[in-house]
Amino acid sequence: MKMYGLIGYPLSHSFSKGFFKEKFEKENITGCQYENYPIPGITEFITLLEAHPQLQGLNVTIPYKEVVIPFLDELSDAAARIGAVNCIHFNGGKKTGYNTDVIGFTKSLQPLLRPHHTRALVLGTGGAAKAIMYALEQLGITYTVVSRRPENGAIAYEALDQATMEAHTLMVNTTPLGMYPKVDTFPEIPYQYLSSRHLLYDLVYNPAETAFLQKGAAQGATIKNGHEMLILQAEASWEIWNKA
Question: Where is each Shikimate dehydrogenase substrate binding N-terminal domain found (predicted)?
């Protein structure tokens, strides 16, 4: 039996396990199993690997996308530049880290981009934000990071005025604000300055339309949640785990 899985903590409502269970059934993939491994500390990563030597690959979610890196043997070029890993391939005893978030985000964003989407605001600074920044760089879109603790070039939410909002027509929420069950939360940006020129992308997918997206849609903005990105990054992980 080939084993795959997801590490993170907590893993109360994981997308990945359901996705791969359905994929295995739909595509008649036999001899494979995908499980959740909620480990309360990253130091338990090695214990997990020792207990499950048949593991072929893992996905990585909050809060381990960055702190898992010292436990790996190699990183893909993208993962090294991003500084965050969400996919690990075990091959011949070697643990290699990849970032498929960047693949999922890029493929799902590109069809929505218009010529005026040249500047973005990235809301949040976590591991997911790093993948988004890398993807935007690859797409030639300049960005400004917005954070509750403005440092390293980031600006504060309070600094978002009308001119800044109008100049940055792509907004990407990389924070968990609005995620179930806290569906009433949202990034504190001045939504009144949004227009039909804006594209709002939320990495959150549960609920399908967060308060952030609802407020954008009310101003005429184009909106997109993170569900397709999740599917695309999962498929990219599967390709990595099964490459020669």
Answer: 6-88
